[in-house]
Write a structure and sequence with these properties.
The complex is a heterodimer of chains A (95) and B (141).
Chain A lengths: L2 E3 L13 E3 L5 H11 L4 H4 L10 E5 L2 E2 L15 E6 L1 E3 L6
Parallel strand pairs in A: 1-5
Antiparallel strand pairs in A: 1-2, 3-4, 3-5
Chain B lengths: L1 E3 L1 H14 L5 E9 L2 E10 L11 E3 L1 H14 L2 E10 L7 H5 L6 E8 L2 E10 L6 E4 L1 E2 L4
Parallel strand pairs in B: 1-3, 1-9, 5-6
Antiparallel strand pairs in B: 2-3, 2-5, 6-7, 7-8
The chains are: A alpha+beta (95), B alpha/beta (141).
Chain lengths: 95, 141
Amino acid sequence: MPKVLIPTPLRQYAGKLDAVEVEGATVGEALNKLTAQHPDLRRHLYNDEGKLRSFVNVYVNDEDIRYLQKDQTALGGGDVVSIVPSIAGGSAPWR
Amino acid sequence: MLRIDRAPWREMVEHAEAAYPNECVGVMLGLSLDEGKSVQTALRMENVNPGSQRERYELDSRDLLAADAEARRRGLDVIGIYHSHPDCDAYFSQTDLKNSCPWYSFVVLSVQQGRYHHANSWLPDADQTRADREDLILPEN
């Protein structure tokens, strides 16, 4: 089964697990299974409209799914899904 | 509460001063315990902001992914992100807030005229609308 790595701050919402194996033929299915098993995770990953929060990036192995087939990206048994936030900033005024 | 050990703190200050007049960025690894978070290692990351880096930074998600793998290898957690504000105070700017993530502590180091001046730690919310200051405990001297 594909494995989803859980970032440290979210483990408290995933039974304190650092990785969860979930069934799913695509990234979207796997994340749905993950958040069905651990419902408290959902609000940390998705906004009220059911979309991944703007700062949440998802990688399959070391590929960003935005450059693959997004949540339709196919998963195989040995694939590792990582949840990685996008981080930027600076002292500049917000434009 | 965020406590930073002496070695990672020295690394963060040296990094911030070396990057001056540009902003630096790095990842803090450590342990998240009931009594608070402790930083044991600071990993320098590359500022990949494509324009001027004097008042902007960007962290490559692949680098953060690699830092997360390093943390897992060492039995540590990714505790937060640090970056510098050259010739500015260590506030959490709107630019910081609108590009933040609520999962981590964000330490901002103020560097004035190339020398470390002061630092604050911030905890942004999930909607990127506000950040609360976090108690920050630094090693003496």
